[in-house]
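Figure 6 in text form: structure in, sequence out.
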C-alpha cells in the first residue's frame, strides 16, 4: 500500500517539493539581506542613541515580498483542497477503491496507509513553510513587535502544522461523506476559511484571561515586547471605563469642564489637569510572554478537530456500503 500510495501521489509530491525549494531559495537570499540590514541599522542607532525611532525610519524588504509571505496563509487550505479533498472522494467516485479492497487489502489498512502518509506529508510541508517564514520574519518581528497580529501569528510558529493537518482531515471527511470530488473541494474551502475566521476573531483572544493595566494619563504604560493590545481607554473617577479614548466618546467630551480650558497649556498641561480630577488610562492586553502558549493552544484545537474528522472518515468508510 505504501508503494501504491507513492505511485498515486508522486506527482503532487514532486510539485510540492519543487515549490518549497523555490520558496526556500527566495526567502534564504532575501532573509539574509534583511537580517544584515537590521543589524547594521541597530548598530548605528545604538551608537547615536536613536533606536526609539527605528521602527518608523527603517524599512526591511519589499512590499511584494511581504505580500508573498502573507499569502502562505493559504497553504494549509490548498493542501486540504488538493490533497485531502480527492483522497477518498476520487476513489469512491471512480470505484477504484473497491478494486483495492478486492485484492486482499482491507478498507482499514487502505485508509490507514493512504491517509497516514498524506496527513504526515501535509503536516511536514506546512511545518517547513512555517519554519522558513518564521526565520525570514525574525528581523521584522524584532523591529515591529507584531507577532500576535492576524497575518503574522497565523503563518509563523507551529500553528500552520495544525492548520495543514486539519485541512487535509477536513477534505478527507468531506469527500467520504459527499462521495464527490468537486463538492468536497468546495466544502473544504468554505468550512476551513469560516472556521479560521471564527477562531481568530472570537476564540483566540480568550485562550487566556487578558491583563488590564491602569496607569497615570501623564505617563502612559507600554507593555514590553510583542504584546497584543485588545482594548484601551480611560477610567473615570467613579471607576467607569471609556474604551473610545480619554478625550471624547461618540464625539462628546468626557474630560472635566475645568480641564477644557487647559488646551492652551499644551497636551501635557491638559493631561495633568485630567489626572488631578481622577482620570486614569488603561490597557487590556495579552503579554508577549504568552505567544508560544497561544501557539500551542491553537495548534491543539486544530489537532483535536483533525482527530475528530479522521474518526468521522473512518466510521463512515468502514461501516457504509460503497
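Output sequence:
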Amino acid at each position: 500500500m505504501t508503494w501504491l500510495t507513492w505511485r498515486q501521489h508522486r506527482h503532487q509530491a514532486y510539485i510540492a517539493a519543487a515549490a518549497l525549494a523555490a520558496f526556500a531559495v527566495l526567502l534564504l537570499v532575501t532573509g539574509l539581506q534583511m537580517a544584515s540590514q537590521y543589524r547594521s541599522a541597530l548598530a548605528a542607532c545604538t551608537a547615536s542613541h536613536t533606536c526609539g525611532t527605528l521602527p518608523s525610519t527603517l524599512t526591511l524588504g519589499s512590499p511584494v515580498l511581504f505580500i508573498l509571505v502573507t499569502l502562505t496563509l493559504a497553504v494549509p487550505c490548498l493542501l486540504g483542497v488538493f490533497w485531502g479533498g480527492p483522497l477518498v472522494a476520487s476513489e469512491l467516485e471512480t470505484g477504484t477503491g473497491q478494486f483495492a479492497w478486492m485484492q486482499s487489502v482491507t478498507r482499514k489498512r487502505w485508509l490507514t496507509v493512504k491517509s497516514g502518509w498524506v496527513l504526515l506529508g501535509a503536516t511536514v510541508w506546512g511545518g517547513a513553510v512555517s519554519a522558513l517564514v518564521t526565520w525570514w520574519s525574525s528581523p521584522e518581528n524584532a523591529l515591529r513587535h507584531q507577532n500576535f497580529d492576524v497575518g503574522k501569528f497565523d503563518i509563523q510558529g507551529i500553528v500552520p502544522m495544525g492548520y495543514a493537518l486539519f485541512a487535509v482531515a477536513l477534505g478527507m471527511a468531506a469527500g467520504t461523506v459527499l462521495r464527490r470530488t468537486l463538492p468536497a473541494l468546495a466544502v473544504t474551502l468554505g468550512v476551513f476559511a469560516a472556521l479560521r475566521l471564527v477562531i481568530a476573531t472570537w476564540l483566540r483572544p480568550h485562550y487566556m484571561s487578558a491583563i488590564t493595566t491602569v496607569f497615570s494619563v501623564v505617563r502612559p504604560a507600554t507593555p514590553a515586547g510583542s504584546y497584543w493590545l485588545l482594548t484601551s481607554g480611560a477610567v473615570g473617577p467613579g471607576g467607569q471605563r471609556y474604551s473610545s479614548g480619554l478625550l471624547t466618546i461618540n464625539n462628546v467630551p468626557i474630560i472635566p469642564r475645568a480641564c477644557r480650558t487647559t488646551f492652551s497649556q499644551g497636551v501635557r498641561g491638559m493631561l495633568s489637569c485630567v489626572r488631578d480630577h481622577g482620570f486614569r488610562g488603561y490597557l487590556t492586553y495579552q503579554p508577549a510572554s504568552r505567544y508560544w502558549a497561544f501557539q500551542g493552544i491553537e495548534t491543539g484545537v486544530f489537532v483535536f478537530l483533525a482527530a475528530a474528522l479522521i474518526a468521522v472518515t473512518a466510521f463512515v468508510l468502514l461501516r457504509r456500503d460503497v
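Caption detail: The chain has ten helices and six strands.
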